[in-house]
Write a structure and sequence with these properties.
This protein is α+β, with helices and mostly antiparallel strands. It contains nine helices and twelve strands. Helices cover 30% and strands 28% of the residues. The protein has a twelve-stranded mixed sheet with strand order 1-2-3-4-5-12-6-11-10-9-8-7, with helices on both faces. A hairpin with a 5-residue loop joins strand 2 and strand 3.
């Protein structure tokens, strides 16, 4: 028998139990069950104003977890969930989603599926959810040729300063992604949490200035799995297995007034060259499937489709 309880804060023990489920699920499913945004806040103690749903067995062991964010007043509440592989097909995921719906009343629930697995599609269809948005993951080899990046005269790059550039970046980020609230709504805390992550490297985060010293663009790179090796049995099924590192064009933006000058493509090429200089052999990025203009540019520099994250919405 499984019980789903609701809480607005998590203990360190609960966070560790949930992260263990994340690790096990990732190995079985081939994809992380949560978005980076959710996982970062989860690792920091779940301090974002969200609702946590814990599915426990009779021994109080957490076997499933749901993350419900009700802070988006425009798009509405969104949820993400995971069930430990050993406890699937027991109705636990349905229990978590049912509880989410109870908590939001008459509002429509949005539900993210990362990796677009067959089981997630079947589950969503079973509960009456419809696909409303796709986010594509694209990848390319860094062994193949990369164009030389060139910026127009009077434009220059400088490294992001985590002390003095916070407000500058957040303002530009908001203006660059007006059509993508998931990105444009970043707060100072969202940025600080990412800067505090082990993967953060200031050398991989540059700002683009025009001749008036106004910041008009940026390219932020990330490395997944670098120096990740389990030296002891920390709960992983495969002790001592390494994760092959891969670079990411994490966030790239250009102010609307400066678009159409090729600045975005040059920033992208800078990012790819930076990742290759750091010894990586492949790179990835995420892009909304509706952003055909960006997808075309990515394809021009060698990126190809790799995978898909799907957003579902319940209209009942």
């Amino acid at each position: 028998m499984y019980k789903v309880s609701v809480t607005k804060s998590l203990t360190d023990i609960q966070v560790n139990e949930i992260l263990d489920i994340v690790i096990n699920s990732s190995e079985i499913d081939g994809a992380r069950p949560f978005s980076e945004h959710v996982e970062i806040h989860l690792r920091s103690g779940g301090d974002r104003p969200v609702i946590h749903l814990l599915a426990e067995d009779s021994n109080k062991k957490i076997v499933g977890y749901g993350h419900l964010d009700t802070t988006d007043l425009v798009a509405g509440p969104s949820g993400e969930l995971v069930v430990h592989p050993d406890f699937r097909l027991k109705g636990i995921a349905t229990q978590i989603v049912t509880e989410m719906k109870k908590l939001i009343g008459k509002q429509q629930l949005r539900l993210w599926s990362h990796g677009d697995t067959t089981s997630a599609r079947n589950f969503s269809n079973k509960l009456g959810f419809e696909s409303v948005r796709n986010v594509i993951q694209m990848r390319r080899s860094l062994f193949s040729p990369i164009e030389t990046f060139k910026f127009p005269l009077n434009y220059s790059l400088r490294q992001f300063d985590s002390l003095s550039d916070v407000d500058i970046f957040l303002k530009l980020n908001k203006e660059s992604f007006v059509d993508l609230p998931d990105q444009s709504s970043w707060t100072k805390q969202d940025l600080e949490l990412r800067v505090a992550e082990d993967w953060f490297s200031a050398a991989g985060f540059v700002l683009l200035e025009n001749d008036k010293k106004n910041v008009v663009g940026f390219c932020w790179t990330k490395v997944h799995g670098q120096d990740h090796k389990h030296e002891k049995d920390d709960g992983h099924k495969h002790i001592d297995h390494g994760h092959e590192p891969i670079g990411e064009l994490y966030v790239l933006g250009v102010h609307p007034s400066e678009q159409g000058k090729g600045l975005g493509k040059s920033l992208m090429l800078w990012g790819l060259n930076h990742l290759r200089r750091n010894g990586l052999d492949s790179a990835m990025l995420y892009v909304d499937s509706n952003n055909q203009k960006a997808i075309k540019i990515y394809e021009e520099v060698g990126f190809n489709f790799w995978g898909l994250d799907r957003l579902y919405r319940s209209f009942t």
